[in-house]
Records
---
Amino acid sequence: MRTSSKTGREKRRYRGAICLSILLMFAGTLTACSGQDTDSSGVPTKPNPQLATVTLTCDNVQVVAEVAKTEEEKSRGLMYRKSLEEGKGMLFVFDYDQKASFWMKNTSIPLSLAYLSKDGTVTQIVDLQPYSQEPNVSTFSVRYVLEVPQGWFAKVGIKEGDKFNIPPLDGTGAKK
């Protein structure tokens, strides 16, 4: 009697293992088909598709920025892009104020970034070097980070303390 009970348990365990294996294979297939390619360490291997954009203004200066809101979009950023036009950029949006850290792994475009508080005030501007893996950590907690072609902030006269008008980004503010 005990032997058949053990055999029943073994059968249930075996079926459970098979179901788990099938589930893991299915999840792997979905990940592979998602188009969001990463290497074995999780680092993206392809650029973001064109993301929804928003126009940001600071006094009479405008920048059209792609909006990176998801963790996947933010981790990919401008990696693997070949160019970035003047007056264009990428706005990284965080759910809450935090110290942000950025690097340039797999990014060939020289960039400048501005760390922005939740009201859009520029708290810090940093120039980034292509392919650098050195982390650039914000001095203060920020809600947004704006990346643009290197030198663009200086060229248009934007400096620390200036304020960007950031429209609502609740899904209705960005244009596809």
---
Amino acid sequence: MSDTGPGSSVPPASSGGRGAGLRPAGAAAGQGREGPLVGGASAVLARRAAVFVALAAAIGVYYGTHQRWFGLPLWWDIAWLCFLLIPAVFGLVYLTLPLWRAPALRLLITAVGFGALAAGLQWAEAGPVATFAKLAAMTAIGWCFLRFFEELSWVVLVAVIVPWVDSYSVWRGPTKTIVTEKPEVFSALSFTFPVPGQDGGAKLGLPDLLFFALFLGASARFGLRPFWTWLCLTASLGGTMALATAFDVGGLPALPLLCLGFLVPNADLLWRAVRRKTPRQT
């Protein structure tokens, strides 16, 4: 459902190979060479956490004060969203990408908790804060769903099918009905990207947030290209908004370009994975 208007993760080490199981003489199992690696991983996570806090603070200031900012012409508003705000918001998801490895139950509890928080904040008319609770909830759900994808080909299949479902929903199905007849419901079930100097902004349906997290998490889980996937996913959302503005339509489905944002930067790796699977199945 969508209506769009104006770290890489290190794969687990293999158990064999050159140097497997080497450790200094006299060292017990689990000691030795692992120490510096664990320390390095902790330093990376600490840097990610620091960047996350700084980025979240900057975004929070913007969401709290954007109505008092300078106004921009229409296409400058689009550029602001495409090149600054959307990458910044989804930069939060990228920085938390290592959490896709969290246990499914923990992710599910996180999703339920943030979902309840979003509902309460929405009811209390704390829209900007509720918006980010929705982002956290849908990200956790997306990474929880990722556990059910045992093969990379399953993710590819989803990326091929869901654009057609989303297109039907936006143009003829339930999304169109909600947007045209119950806009307040769509506002409650969407994420808002406000433009500077105005009250309104572009809206993105919650399922789009879920698929963003799913595709980004899949790129980490299956050893693809997480950073380039993130870059193309964010660019696809900006591209959808630009197309909606250029063609002067109330909204376009976001999933067609979002799925391309997953498939295109990983096309060669996806093809190799499919070819490796084919001999086993035949």
---
Amino acid sequence: MSAVQATLPLEFNRPAAPALRWADAGGTGFEIGWDHAQHRLTPPVAHLQAGSPVRQGWEAGRIVFGPRTRPATPQVRKWLQLRLSAWQRGRAFEGVQVTPAFLRRIDVPVCPIVREPLTHGTGGPLDASVDRVNNDAGYAAGNLALMSVRANAAKAAYAWDDAMRFVRQIEAGALGGIDGLDAAQWARLAVLMAYATPLPHAVAAALPMLVLPPPRLRLLNAVQCLQALLTLQFTREGYTQRIAALATLMPCTHTQDALRGLMHTLLARRIAAGFGSDQITLRRTLEDLWADPLVLRRWQRLALSLTEAHCEQVVREAMRRGLAGRELRWLPRELATEGWALESRGYVPMAQAIEPLHPATPPLVAADPHHQREPMPLGLAA
């Protein structure tokens, strides 16, 4: 068979039984198959049945590209896998920003939840897995993070408050762990999910920063944006001068004193913990500072003395003055949750499901990533 011939192997040319009635109103399935061909990859067998939009796109792409294909990097494979998974379940996928290059930028060497080095392609529980942080939002920039398969499987379809409930149940002695995670790991997962979940100011202010925001995550709560900005001051030199400058941004003397008290407590705990020589150790040290009850009390004294508007104003002014560093970037309101599809809880609006004639076949749906979205109040890209 020549390189440009579109004929499928004999196995895939057999009549499909049972047949499916495929829905691909937005052409998403065809595009996924086309991109498989462009990278010389074969879609999963389930999508090679007759009439499948993925197969149709794949066959058309093989004719057009022939041997002139692009490298199938691990990020490309993951990108195609995420798109196919989203399409199958009717989930919104924002394809302009979420690219193989974006997935490379959010890569981390250690799972932020279980704190073990991530592996790749072993089939084990520590293999790297990309997932949505907020389960009620789509696959979009700012709502994706890398974690282990183990943490991702435990997270499942739970929300941040479910994770906090599991923490209380484990700490009460009712259970030693839930779905393979202990109380500390569920607490880190709860905080991570809370970042990408719009919360009341007082609720977000009560959470310790047990996990620092991973790369490219968008924080939707102004008080957590301030919390991240303050904590990350200790990742680079010159924090004494910056803390003094940040105090001047507080709206009154009470909040200025509260900020100084918090930062002095964080600094004392930071010094006592020692200075790690690598970024992974440093991040873990800063996260563990927030397990100290005194740190949390002093943070809440500051945070609950501020309004959401105060927090937003302080963060934006700190960034304008160069006090936030390169780790954080402010996003306008209309860009904070672009592509998240929050109004439809992360699903493609009016998505049509495939009607399988066999009950064991998972439903496949078409996705339209160009739907209209309501802007969220704010966003901070970490």
---
Amino acid sequence: MSLSVYFLDNNGEDVEQQTCLNITHNMNKLVDECGKLVGEDHYELIWIPDELFNLPNGKVPVKLIINRLPVLINDLIENETELTKYLPSNGWGTFEGLICFLCNYLKECYINKDSFVYCCR
């Protein structure tokens, strides 16, 4: 089970991406705990941005997400020691993999800044 992130144009058609954005659901606990630690909606931003912004899935403008991703990445790095206890015990998912996913997500948001985010969960 994983989360896949896609970008859609104004007509709801897929936008070509340079990177496949996919992360195991096993990492959502760590992201959620990071958000709780710093008082941010980090889990919602990544897994359910449609609910966070009260918009249909696929209609969340990239501009609502792009400025929040660096904050999340920073919060994860700043709190890595505290958050490692939330790494999945089954080994499916790493801190480094999560950071890489988020950096690629940020890159794709920059490239596709006029698009909309669709999360396949």
